[in-house]
């Protein structure tokens, strides 16, 4: 099975993809839009995308891409994010004067970086990509912050492990498939929806009250602007449901209050 991810091999998305599909063939893409284009165009079978980090929040671009493509979320998983300081083999910690990584990873390792003031933090486009560039450039004064898998994949060494400020650092990933081929788990207890409410007072409250009335448990809500319609929004929600028929009831309950309702996927909650 070919799996598209955004980022270089060895990234956290790579790790999540193999957790979801252990025998999968990873197809790295530079941009998230390329991931969805590869999936929609049939170049890959599925895509694995991060949707939310417990510390940094939602990956907003991915909500937009889920809405604009004919795809469905089929599964989700949680990945514990462990950051590591990675350098070329044989390099000592005291030799490092520059550290490269994605801005979010750098922000999540502030305490470590503050304790090593000789190291200048420099933003890069990707965690694993930082390790790749480090190894290709053979720069003994530079290091990267990335996953253990990235160090293993590119033949680098870990100088300091688990350097993140907060150990309660998890990212939720979706496995996404073309809508026509998606399979709903018989034990699905979660649904993701996108909807836009009518532009009148109380419409959002009315829509949420409808969801509460049928016994769903709202676990997430996110808003995104409607392109071309200033000050109008698409709302994305995750709902825990008791049974499969509740999904259809939730969609039907929203329709009287909404201009748009789209089911993004029905799947089993990670860990359930």
Question: How would you characterize this protein structure?
Answer:
- With 272 residues, the chain is α/β, with parallel strands linked by helices.
- Strands 1, 2, 3, 4, 5 and 11 form a 6-stranded mixed beta sheet that branches. A 5-stranded mixed beta sheet has the order 8-7-9-6-10.
- The model has no long low-confidence stretch (mean pLDDT 93).
- 29% of the residues lie in helices and 35% in strands.
- It has 9 helices and 15 strands.
- The chain folds into 3 domains: 91 residues, D-Maltodextrin-Binding Protein, domain 2; 77 residues, D-Maltodextrin-Binding Protein, domain 2 (3-Layer(aba) Sandwich); 78 residues, Alpha-Beta Plaits (2-Layer Sandwich).
- It is elongated, with a radius of gyration of 21 Å.
């Amino acid at each position: 099975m070919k799996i598209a991810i955004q980022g270089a091999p060895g990234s956290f998305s790579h790790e999540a993809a193999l957790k979801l599909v252990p025998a999968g063939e990873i197809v790295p893409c530079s941009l998230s839009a390329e991931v969805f284009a590869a999936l929609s165009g049939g170049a890959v079978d599925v895509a694995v995308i991060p949707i939310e980090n417990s510390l940094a929040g939602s990956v907003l671009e991915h909500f937009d891409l889920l809405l604009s493509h004919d795809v469905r979320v089929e599964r989700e998983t949680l990945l514990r994010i462990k950051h590591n300081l990675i350098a070329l083999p044989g390099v000592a910690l005291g030799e490092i004067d520059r550290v490269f990584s994605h801005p979010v990873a750098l922000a999540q390792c502030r305490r470590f970086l503050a304790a090593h003031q000789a190291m200048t933090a420099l933003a890069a486009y990707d965690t694993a990509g930082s390790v790749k560039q480090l190894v290709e450039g053979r720069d003994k004064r530079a290091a990267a912050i990335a996953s253990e898998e990235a160090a293993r994949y590119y033949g680098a060494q870990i100088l300091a492990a688990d350097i993140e400020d907060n150990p309660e650092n998890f990212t939720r990933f979706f496995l996404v498939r073309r809508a026509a081929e998606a399979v709903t788990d018989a034990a699905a207890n979660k649904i993701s929806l996108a909807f836009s409410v009518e532009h009148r007072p109380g419409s959002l409250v009315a829509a949420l009250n409808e969801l509460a009335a049928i016994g769903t448990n709202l676990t997430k809500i996110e808003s995104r602007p409607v392109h071309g319609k200033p000050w109008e929004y698409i709302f994305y929600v995750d709902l825990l449901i008791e049974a499969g028929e509740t999904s259809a009831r939730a969609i039907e309950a929203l329709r009287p209050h909404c201009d748009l309702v789209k089911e993004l996927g029905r799947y089993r909650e990670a860990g359930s």
